Amino acid sequence: MTAPTDPKLAAIRDKVHAGERLTFDDGLALEATSDLFTLGELANLVRERKNGSVTFYNVNTHLNPTNVCVYRCAFCSFRSDLKGPTGYVMTDEQILGRAREATERGCTELHVVGGLHHQLPYEWYLNIIASIHREFPDLHLKAWTAVEWDWFEKLTKRSTRDLLAEMRDAGLGSLPGGGAEIFHPEVRSKICDYKADADQWLGVHRTWHELGGKSNATMLYGHIERPEHRIDHLLRLRGLQDETGGFQTFIPLAFHPSNNPLGKGIPKPSGMMDLKVMAVSRLMLDNFPHIKAYWQMLTAKVAQVAQSWGADDIDGTVVHEKIYHAAGSDSPQEMTVADLRRLIEEAGRVPVERDTLYREVVRDQPVGKRWQTGRRLVTLN
Ligand code: SF4
């Protein structure tokens, strides 16, 4: 590989090869370059240092128990007003039915997020976790974004620590990374004023990590934010990870402009931008073990290529994805394990099924029958 002609990029290349931490200005220089191949070379170096040639995937399903939400984030195509024509609240039977379906399909994880309903109490959200866990104790429940936890605190006037501990005892497995959007107040005040701010978002994750839990982090890019806002976002996450070490995965989320007020006049992020953000994230987040190319947001094609631009995870089978499809995602709702493995193998990587906590899942029969997770052998119906 020839050295880059841009002296700033050449200096960054030396730092990455030496394993040195990159600065805010380094991040801006990475954002400014159009030398996509050097970005890929450097991000791939870090990716292979951390995860070799493995790309992870999982067998999972989504559950969005309600789309009714008190907030009106400008980028959101999922939410509904309390009496809006598209508003819904799933019944207990529907919720347990979704968990049963997930278990029968061999899922190891249920990803549970939704709206902040005007009238439903915290106990409704708690009961979702408790009732699923009672019936399906082997299903890992990755539930409620930091924005939802902040809402629970407002509803109950109890501390987030207390609520997190209570829900953990009821069956909560880990926290998803949603709700982070862009932390910088110049942007956050325009796209999601009112909901949890950066310090509140980070505070929820800090508390969960202090309780011994693991979580993920995200960034919504490709709308009105500028490169300095993205680098600021990454460095705030890196700072918390230095403190706690509780983050597992960072997931850059490409903005989808359909059916939301923010999207008017804004095109979808290009493939160039998707790969650049992926690579810059891998390089700046030197203390995050994993970077995910979430195929639902990026398309399967970009997620496949992103495995050479820093990503070591492409998420899972998903099923029942509502949030990004409402915003115009034209990815399929679901991917089979064979599809995921093909995407990985064609990219020259080694597919490894993981559970939510990145333990390898070893199945002794095809998905949906009988399988092993870590050291536990689980028999399904
Ligand atoms: S992004 Fe979440 S908090 Fe914001 S309006 Fe949509 S559902 Fe509500």
Entry keywords:
globular; disordered C terminus; four-stranded parallel β-sheet; three-stranded parallel β-sheet; alpha/beta; 381 residues; single chain; 15 helices; binds iron/sulfur cluster; TIM Barrel
Describe it.
The chain has about 375 residues and is an alpha/beta fold. It has one domain (about 20-380): Aldolase class I (TIM Barrel, Alpha-Beta Barrel), CATH 3.20.20. The protein is about 45% helix and about 15% strand. The chain is built from 15 helices and 13 strands. The chain has helices at about 5-20, 25-30, 35-50, 90-105, 120-135, 145-155, 160-170, 185-190, 200-210, 225-245, 270-285, 295-300, 300-305, 325, 335-345, and strands spanning about 55-60, 60-65, 110, 140-145, 170-175, 215-220, 245-255, 290, 315, 350-355, 360, 370-375, 375-380. It has a four-stranded parallel sheet. Strands 9-1-10 form a three-stranded parallel sheet, covered by helices on one side. A hairpin with a 7-residue loop joins strand 11 and strand 12. Helix 4 packs parallel to helix 5. The protein is globular, with a radius of gyration of 20 Å. Residues about 370-380 have low confidence and may be disordered. Bound molecules: iron/sulfur cluster. Iron/sulfur cluster binds next to loops. The site of iron/sulfur cluster (SF4) has 12 residues, from loops.
